[in-house]
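Quick one, T. Sequence first:
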Amino acid sequence: MDLIQTPNKQFIDGDRRTPGTPVPAWWLNQLQGELSAVVAEAGLRLDKNNQEQVVEAIKNIAERQGKGILDKAPLVIYAKDRAEFVAKNSANDYQSIPDGAIAIAEGAFYQRAAGEKKIADLTGWLPARGLESIGNYRSGYDVNKKTAVTIAHKRDGSTVADIVSIKNPKINTLRKVFADRSASSYGRKTPREFARQNGYKVVINADGWAKNNAHYGLQIENGQVVQDWAESPAGTWNSAIVFMGDGSLRHAKRSDGITAQQWVERGALWSVCFAGVIVEDGQKVINTSPEIANAVSARTIIGQKTDGELIIIMVEGQSGKYGMTLDQAAAYAIDQGCVIAYAADGGGSTQCWWGDCYAVPSSDGNFMNERPLSAFFVIDADVAQYDTGYIPLRLAEKMTSSKPIGGVVFRQVGKQINVEIECESSFLANKVTPLCTTVPMRYQTKRLTEMKGIVVGAAGVIGGIFAGATHLSVNMLAATSYVAGNFGWTAINSN
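Structure tokens:
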């Protein structure tokens, strides 16, 4: 930065006779750039509504430098760089080091705390004084509150979505992990396969992939550079979402000229690159090609609220048939409170393995297949059993019900699909009578024999109920005015 170009390098006030010092654009731009650089160096996200960011940034940087933390340390050790530190810790080279000892690696300070696991790749170490400069820990995380992870199933007209919420997230609660990566190639696995092999409770699709299953654009995993912009195997990709050590999501743009290594040095933990940012500063931002932006499809969106809550939205759909465009997805993300949101891979890739079942199955092959993927969002936290709640279906013509939530109601709890029936109509003997419209594809099964049960009518009349490709129907042994019953089966691909 330079001083204002006046003879005495000072500003002067003007009066009616003498004009004051003009403020040129270059000086204001330099001032803005210097202040924003301080905020960025501290790993914070610029916020026009926060007038204390520079102060907070300076405090964070001071903490990062470790002022005063060495005085009381029983032992101080040094590592050449973070990679060496991680490698030695993984090899149990530090087992005998006492609690409270300080390790210094690449200017970051770590405190020994045997058994603690708040940093993903450094078990037994904590960020000294609450901050790790290379990431993996968010200074804004409230240690007095629990991290809460929930999933909600929502149906509004033709829109069907599952929304994962991570409130007060510990920095390692949500990560991006490649399915199988080596120096030269990538592998693909289904979410179920990947979850079971690695012990993950929640697995959600992330990046798309190109030739040899390689990934597009900027790629960072676990605070390490995997691929820079120019190394993309499928040409130029201009936008990625980056998760920082302060717990914020950032929009990474190729045009900014910031390399993958520079992002890591600023605290980036992981990145996802695909369709692009669709919400920024609470406003729609659609900058991808029209064929992608206007396509109707299933969608996977990752976003964040102003309080740091992370949200993953998975919209059900089939490419070219139903779902959302990117514009619609952006509006939906804003409705959920997102101030930033990014479109990950969608279509048949949109999948979520939750606990022991597919909360969101792939739409490939009419929801009958699992799509192998090359990168995932994984959630490491206690989660409740998946539960859609009651889902009423539209009744067939001349079919009524006095039941408040509907005459035909679906519900998925874990991997079990249950149907409850209580309908009124004129049911003739030995005649197939449709009860409702088409059974939603995500609740169907590959084994139609499972979708059968028994219903009871007036005066104890018995009948059969079955689900087909077009209707849920009954066939009564004698005429009756109503039918009631329930039956269930296992959700698609969840065994």
